[in-house]
Amino acid sequence: PVSFSLLGCVCVCTAMASYTLKEVAQREHWMVIHGKVYDVTTFLTDHPGGEEVLVEASGRDASVDFDNVAHSPDAHELMAKYYVGELVDNATGKGSGAKTSGGAKKEVRTHAPAQQEKQDLSRRG
């Protein structure tokens, strides 16, 4: 981390790590959710849905699994604690985003359902 002072505030900047799905799969309790890589090792015993849910999702893209459960806003905030980097494409080394198997970008839900509905309505607006 690099620290610097700006107008009396101390800012700490860290370089963003990036990982391929193959690298994530080689770690024991790492997973990908919407292009972000998480190390949930220290959260296993605290996960309200049970440790086995996280163990089964380890080493892969668990975005669909995550979205299929009604996670609270607190759960979304808690994820920041376990964030370790961004997913990159195996071939290009560039950010993968969320893609379908055909390579086209796919819209992903990043908000709680009520917030997503509100966001969808504002887009139509």
Characterize the structure shown:
The chain is of the alpha+beta class and 125 residues long. It is built from five helices and six strands, in the order βββαββαααβα. The protein has helices spanning 21-25, 51-57, 63-67, 73-78, 113-124, and strands at residues 2-6, 9-13, 18-19, 30-33, 36-39, 83-87. The chain is globular, with a radius of gyration of 17 Å. The protein starts with a strand and ends with a helix.
Features:
28% helix; two-stranded antiparallel ribbon; 125 residues; alpha+beta; globular; disordered C terminus
Shape: globular
Count every beta strand, where a strand is a DSSP E run of 2 or more residues. Answer: 6
Distance between the termini: 43 Å
Low confidence ranges:
1-5, 98-124
Biggest sheet features: 4 strands, mixed
Q: Helix count? A: 5
Going across the major beta sheet, what is the strand order?
3-6-5-4
Overall structural class, as computed from helix and strand content, comes to alpha+beta
Q: How big is the Rg?
A: 17 Å
- Helical fraction: 25-40%
If you average the pLDDT, what whole number results? 75
Order of helices and strands: EEEHEEHHHEH
Strand content: 15-25%
Brief summary:
The protein is built from five helices and six strands. The protein has helices spanning about 20-25, 50-55, 65, 75-80, 115-125; strands spanning about 1-5, 10-15, 20, 30-35, 35-40, 85. It has a four-stranded mixed beta sheet with strand order 3-6-5-4. Strands 1-2 form a two-stranded antiparallel sheet.
